[in-house]
């Protein structure tokens, strides 16, 4: 899920009058916040000329108007190739980004539809989802400029992770009154330290083949209408990264069960379709599985939000996410086979 380097704060109400004057979109009738989303702000907007999705690009990591305009150009080109997206409207000044009062906004057509997690997808829909992500990756290679290099970041250092675990354990001990979240956090931190001590020699090599990726492909960013995807939204993290790793991360988010296990038959259907669509090799997926497993083993972003920032919005994700790292380690071979078999 998306993360931010700063604690989000309440955003101001969107300046509807000033915004709509920049578009041929009529006068505002209603404007309701959209519940989903941890960082940016979205609104369901009805005007005298139709229904729209108004996006306030609030996350400081992704709110640069030039970067937003690049995302908008990408979605327009993807739409021309038949990829289901919702490109923004163009204002009277020819721009798709409106900066008012130091805040960046964009107006998109409203797409009727809903979100579906992996539990709601049939095997055929899992295949369709994997194929769709493969089409996204292949299409981005056509519409975006070539890149000589990408984000081949170093793997997480277990020494740094051990220090983080100690710091988080100290924060858990200091939290009063202690609650059930503290109890689970302490258990998972101790458990994870033991796993890292046991597997510290399995640090993966640097990332493999890179290309343009969506950057945040998960259930809240895919809208369904009926049984078919109607639009892929939220392109804020469009960038150059190892593509197969995005495929693995997306599958882990879509197909994790509440108990922290993966629905491996659905993963297999999804991964086979992705490999065909993206022309990815089994070895690419195998290496990506290893890197994402290691990433999850060293990752404590939910606990950092909770204890360092006092931000509890991601707390409901913690039970399944923390259990998944343990289960994945135990079932490593079965998970890898599901992605490459």
Which H/E pattern describes the elements? HEEEHEEHHHEEEEHHHHHH
Q: Which oligomeric form is depicted?
A: single chain
User: In angstroms, what separates the terminal alpha carbons?
Assistant: 27 Å
Give the neighbour order of strands across the main sheet: 1-2-3-5-4
Give the mean pLDDT.
91
- Major sheet summary line: 5 strands, antiparallel
Class from helix and strand fractions: alpha+beta
Fraction of residues in helix: 40-55%
Overall 3D form: globular
Helix run count: 11
Could you list the spans in which at least 5 consecutive residues all have pLDDT below 50?
1-10
| Percent range for β-strand residues | 5-15%
Let me know the number of strands. Answer: 9
Radius of gyration: 21 Å
Q: What descriptors fit this protein?
A:
single chain; 341 residues; alpha+beta; two-stranded antiparallel sheet; 11 helices; globular
